[in-house]
Amino acid sequence: MGMKVGIIGCGSITKMRHAPEYQANPFVEEIIFYDRNIERAEILAAQFSGRVAKTVEELFEDPEIQAISDCSSNEHHHLFSTKALLSGKHVLCEKPISLTVENAAEILAAQQMSGKKLMIDHNQRFTQAHKKAREIIASGDYGKVLTFRTTFGHAGPETWGINKTNSTWFFKKERSGLGVGGDLGIHKIDLLHFLLDDEIEQVSAFQGSLHKINENGHVIEVADNIVCSLKTAKGCLGTASFSWTHYGEEDNSTIIYCEGGIIKIYSDDEYQLEILAKDHTKIRYQLEDMQTNEKQTNSGVIDAFIESIRLDQKPPVTGQDALNALKVILAIAEAAETQKVVIIEKESLQFL
Fold first, then answer.
1. Measured between alpha carbons, how far is 198 from 1 in angstroms, rounded to an integer?
2. Are 149 and 195 in contact (CB under 8 A)?
3. Relative to the CA of 182, which of 212, 252, 255, 320 has its CA 20 to 30 Å away?
4. How far is CA 232 from the centre of its chain?
5. What is the spatial order of strands in the sheet that 282-285 belongs to?
6. Strand, helix or coil at 185?
7. In degrees rounded to 5, what are phi and psi of residue 328?
8. Pick from 192, 199, 200: which is nearest to 130 by CA?
9. Which residues make Cβ contacts (< 8 Å) with residue 302, sequence separation at least 6?
10. What are 32-62's pLDDT values in tens digits?
């Protein structure tokens, strides 16, 4: 008998990623969908041969459901993921883990109490180019990392979400909370931690609501662009920019500058990973294309989550990893608001 999984929230992330990847996983037998808007749940249940839960409690109380994907909007993660864990379910939570450190700590405490798996969907760790780049950096073949720059920009969540209008929840302060930082930036912060095997320790930043307007014609309440400077615990320096106003094409590139050369990731359409060595030799890798909003490919996240449950292994992206990334994004927002450098205390990165 295969596994039964529940999904909370039937927006685009469920339709494009979670549901098709659960359906494709050979160890998953059935998907049970819940959404406040029951029609959305019914549409996906029909599309993916699943069934509908009329209340979220049905998911928590069903003894046959082993795992739950929390694809609710950001402000609900700490409510649903905590309840799911305490009801004995393994949980895959969408990023960001939460909007505040306190709420994230609730989820981590529930995970410890329940003993169940908690994984957060920081999917950039799973791409072939990022995994290969991490290996190359860890090998030391090009010396230590000195500096870096990374970008994540697209035309905005209203072009991708299920609500393709300016009333999207991503633009609402009380629901999205962190704007482009929580939507795109947190992916890149987690990726930098992963690639460099390091943690960002100091940040400065500028942010702005430069172009997006809401359904009432007013400037949105959250930032649509952030540019920041970062310093890691190991002393690397770098920049990051996150944008909802890249209207020509997406940019998901990262460049790592090492003592012995440059590692370019997703900066060339044909070669997803390039190494430009100090002696001017070039090594180019053709790996899989980066996922974009227009072109969805299997992220590997669902397969990794199911495998961690089946084999009783630590998930590849833990709640602690996600909390570390959230603290940096919160520090970036604080730095932009106060126009000061913000230091992320080392002790505060650990949840005990």
1. 41
2. no
3. 255
4. 20
5. 282-285, 273-277, 261-265, 254-258, 145-153, 237-243, 225-232, 200-208, 342-343
6. helix
7. -70, -45
8. 192
9. 17, 18, 21, 22, 25, 92
10. 999 999 999 999 999 999 999 999 999 999 9
